[in-house]
Amino acid sequence: MTTRRGHKTFDRSLLDTKLSINSATGILYRRAANPLISKPSPIKRFGGHVIENMIDFEIKICGIQSAGDVAACAAAGADCIGLNFYPPSVRYLDPRGATARVVNDRAAAEGLVRVGLFVNEPASSIIDIAQSLGLDAVQLHGDETPSLAESLLKKGISVIRAIRLPTTSMSPAQIQGFIGPWAELPVTWLLDADAGAAYGGGGRQLDWASLATWSGETSQQDDGPNWILAGGLNCENVAQARRTSTARRVDVASGVESSRGKKSAELIQRFVVQCRARGVDESA
């Protein structure tokens, strides 16, 4: 079935035909099923196996809490949602509760990529929840170690790792220093503003020009950096943020809320429209 999404159409059956699991290794292989993403995913090696671990999406709306939120994301043309499984968060969803199941299943039916956000949970719990809900990826947003991510990757679970950066100007070497050992793993980096003891950027913006310089230099090596821009994005600044930083993927939470933790369908729609008005050449 072909479904209208923004100004493009896509066939939901592609979401099934583009996924496969190697029976010998248990490693999940993913090929871009989203026609909004024109650039192929980087292929990297892990544990002796070639795996394509990049989750393909352009616009992630994080902190989704209801089926209505999901419907708003799909109607606007966003292609990924984040489910927040961190109990202290105002956007928290109990991953084993009925609401999380309803939201997750509605998102799957809408063809949205589903990412579960965890903070300092044990690997066993993350694996259990990811497999139970059939998540497309998990986002590690706490103080998790690369070894924990390795245990998830070995289970065929795609990983997004939040990298907390200062909001000041940085050199490419400084940015790469914050990424550190995570550069050795086939994970996606979500670059967010460091908010101190809080896990999340708290609406603070990164220095987008610094990210553009870093991304440009790093792109000359291997397949280039696999990253998502987060931190203080909203309807008013996302177009400029993408033009300046050259980010192909963005993540927003508070920037599309009418009040703290409450998503606004109107703001989600405006965000998606502005996000795609950025003028960045996807084919580059």
Automatic annotation (TrEMBL):
Pathway: Amino-acid biosynthesis; L-tryptophan biosynthesis; L-tryptophan from chorismate: step 3/5. It is an enzyme of class 5 (isomerase). SUPFAM superfamilies: Ribulose-phoshate binding barrel. GO terms for molecular function: phosphoribosylanthranilate isomerase activity. Keywords: Amino-acid biosynthesis, Aromatic amino acid biosynthesis, Isomerase, Tryptophan biosynthesis. Its EC number is 5.3.1.24. One of its GO terms (biological process) is L-tryptophan biosynthetic process. InterPro entries: Aldolase_TIM, PRAI_dom, RibuloseP-bd_barrel, TrpF_fam. Residues 59-272 form the N-(5'phosphoribosyl) anthranilate isomerase (PRAI) domain. Belongs to the TrpF family. This is N-(5'-phosphoribosyl)anthranilate isomerase. The gene is trpF.
